[in-house]
Amino acid sequence: MATMESLIGLVNKIQRACTVLGDYGGEGMSLWEALPSVAVVGGQSSGKSSVLESVVGRDFLPRGSGIVTRRPLVLQLHKTENGSQEYAEFLHAPRKKFTDFAAVRKEISDETDRITGQTKQISNIPIQLSIYSPNVVNLTLIDLPGLTKVAVEGQPETIVEDIENMVRSYVEKPNCIILAISPANQDIATSDAIKLGREVDPTGERTFGVLTKLDLMDKGTNAVDVLEGRSYRLQHPWVGIVNRSQADINKNVDMLAARRKEREYFETSPEYGHLAHKMGSEYLAKLLSQHLELVIRQRIPSIIALINKTIDELNAELDRIGRPIAVDSGAQLYTILEMCRAFDRVFKEHLDGGRPGGDRIYGVFDHQLPAALKKLPFERHLSLKNVQRIVSEADGYQPHLIAPEQGYRRLIDGSIGYFKGPAEASVDAVHLVLKELVRKSIAETEELKRFPTLQSDIAAAANESLERFREESKKTVTRLVEMESSYLTVEFFRKIHFEQERGQDRDREKDKDKDRDRERERDRDRDSYSYRYEKQMYDRHDKQSSSNVDRYSDHYLKRIGSNVIAYIGMVCDTLKNTIPKAVVYCQVREAKRSLLSNFYTQLGKREKEKLGAMLDEDPALMERRETIAKRLELYKSARDEIDQVAWK
Fold first, then answer.
1. What is the distance between the alpha carbons of residues 64 and 143, in angstroms, rounded to a whole number?
2. Residue 38 in 3-state DSSP?
3. What residue stretch is flagged as signal peptide (predicted)?
4. Does the pLDDT at position 263 exceed 50?
5. End-to-end CA, the chain
């Protein structure tokens, strides 16, 4: 079974380690909060400092008027062998031993001022003081600022509330033992410490009552009713203390002599003689030490459970932000490649629909490209005036015989040229989507968050590849447009000509019917002069029409424009399908296959120093990892030491 000294010493050691890591308690659940402790609570001038000095057997605390204790003082007492030298150590000055306790008093004042300044402000950052002496018991006490009712000159208006909140943050924890200090020469009903203890510990299970200044009570009065629990009952016995008088303090009366004087007072007192064996600072120290050891033993299972839970959480946090990187180049190269693969997985998930964003590429093909094609200025290009101009220029000095083939070709070439704009715009739009997906993928790759330099390098390499893919894609879609212009689909025009001839045959049949009707009407007066003149004029007009069609008539020009627009519609439908295929093949497919291929090639040529520079981490993240690693080491060490001590 573990000894009292080993258990309390274990808690002391863990508390010191917590303080180094900034775990001061008083704010949320932590390892500090899980450790049992004794908090000394009392109003100003209640005799708190004198009780602590009596327990220690040394005069070491700063004294003065107003708020003297402005930071929590974690006082860890370690019992040493008889005859050994007494000394003190501060956690903030670990390699310095104080054998002069006047210097300890000055160091407490100086360390308080270092955080709070020369003002009368308070701070919750504790001072850790360890005292090694044969005249103490193994015990840990936390001296808190004295409770006050009003702010005096030089103190902030909120000082009363600030002190109470700080004290309450300690004593409301279920593992805190409350040492409530009350002066005997005041009504116990007005005790600040008892009032606060009743609020946070209504059953009195965690509260020890201490009555000071018994020797200063008015003659004819005593505190027997309080000490015997009749005035205010606690589950633990009340302890009376007789402090050094101010005259003894001024004379620097030895604390050990003061203890002897205290024992004599109780043993010879007619009021308290029957309680002498349960009174005094020495009895108080032993009582607290035994109770603290009992509480620690009871709390060990819950402390171990908290430690194991926290270790798991810290390990998970380290896994999330990443473990430290090895220094050899092979490990660094492996780490970089793993980061690149993780990024590549996220990027492909965006493209394939596992994450949002890839659907925007389809939006380019389904909405943006068709909308751009609809806005092309074919009506202006194929207006009657422009068709007439282009056909005339193509004919030159010799008009076309049957159909203006060169005119058709020029009109078609000019119209197809307009498709280059929407085709290249589709390439650029997909390029922007891919760049945005690269940015999002880098931000969403958890493994990369710790390496800002590597993030920049991957982004630069990916964007460089995307730029190369874009250029190749532009060349491809431009070739698609130019191919449509370089070889026209002859069957389309043959089909149009065939349909036009069928229409003309139907028109001629109708004309013949009309001619036969006119012929019957004219048979009666065929020989008349008017008939011969009319027929002569009709035949002349018919010959002129059939021999030389007016190449600039609106009907003729409209038919040319209509034929060209029909062909361009066919080309448009073709490109609407082939442009997306080319863009996906040249950009999306290549991005999935070889986005970082050049980057991988360059990595193999880099020197160790350059690889290390790529893995340069965010200083804040490095600091966070270091803090987690230290806390993890603390909790593992605490677990090991508890395992060693608890079951000895």
1. 16
2. strand
3. none
4. yes
5. 5
Non-local (6+) Cβ contacts of 623 within 8 A are none
pTM over 0.85: no
pLDDT, tens only, 357-368: 889 999 999 999
Contact (Cβ atoms closer than 8 angstroms) between residue 61 and residue 104 = no
C-alpha dihedral (226, 228, 231, 235), degrees to nearest 10: 110
**Amino acid identity at 21:** L
DSSP lists the bridge partners of residue 181 as 42, 210
How far CA 639 is from CA of 10, 644, 645, in Å, comes to 11, 9, 10
- Which residues, at least 6 apart from 349, have a Cβ–Cβ distance to it below 8 Å? 355
Instruction: Tell whether the torsion through CA atoms of 503, 504, 507 and 512 is positive or negative.
Output: negative
Contact status, residue 637 vs residue 357, Cβ threshold 8 Å: no
* Number of neighbouring beta carbons within 10 Å of residue 388: 19
Q: Which residues contact 481 (CB under 8 A, 6 or more apart)?
A: 416, 417, 419, 420, 423, 575
Closest CA relative to residue 336, chosen from 619, 618, 610, 591: 610
Q: Could you read off the pLDDT of 96-120 as tens digits, one per residue?
A: 899 998 899 899 988 888 888 776 7
Q: Provide the pLDDT confidence category of residue 534 given band limits of 50, 70 and 90.
A: very low
Does 334 score more than 60 pLDDT?
yes
Residue 417 φ/ψ, nearest 5 degrees: -60, -25
Residues of the chain with pLDDT > 70, as a percent, come to 84
What whole-number distance in Å separates Cα of residue 419 and Cα of residue 625? 56
Q: For 609-617, what is the mean pLDDT?
A: 77
Least confident interval from 4-8, 32-36, 267-271, 346-350: 4-8
The label of the residue with tokens 């009555």 reads 211
CA distance linking residue 482 with residue 416, whole number of Å: 8
- For 90-136, give the secondary structure using H, E and C: ECCEEEEEECCHHHHHHHHHHHHHHHHCCCCCCCCCCEEEEEEECCC
Tell me the average pLDDT across 413-440. Answer: 95
- Please, which residues have CB within 8 angstroms of residue 589's CB and are 6 or more apart in sequence? none
Pairing state between β 87-90 and 127-133 = antiparallel
Q: Taking Cα atoms as reference points, which of 35, 132, 18 lies closest to residue 80?
A: 132
Amino acid (one-letter) located at 330:
G
Interval 573-595: pLDDT, tens: 999 999 999 999 999 999 999 99
> What average pLDDT does the segment 66-75 reach?
81
Task: Collapse the DSSP code of 5 into the 3-class scheme (helix H, G, I; strand E, B; otherwise coil) and give the result.
Answer: helix
Residue among 107, 471, 75, 568 nearest 288 (CA)? 75
Contact 463, 435 (CB under 8 A): yes
Distances in whole angstroms, Cα of residue 442 to Cα of each of 143, 176, 439, 445, 458: 51, 48, 5, 5, 8
- pLDDT value for 545: 40
- The H or E element containing residue 538 is helix 529-547
The token duo for 75 is 């006082």
549 pLDDT more than 60: no
Contacts of 544 (CB under 8 A, 6+ apart): none
Phi, psi for 33 (deg, rounded to 5): -65, -30
**615 three-class SS:** coil
Q: State the average pLDDT for the chain.
A: 82
pLDDT confidence tier of residue 519, bands split at 50, 70 and 90: low
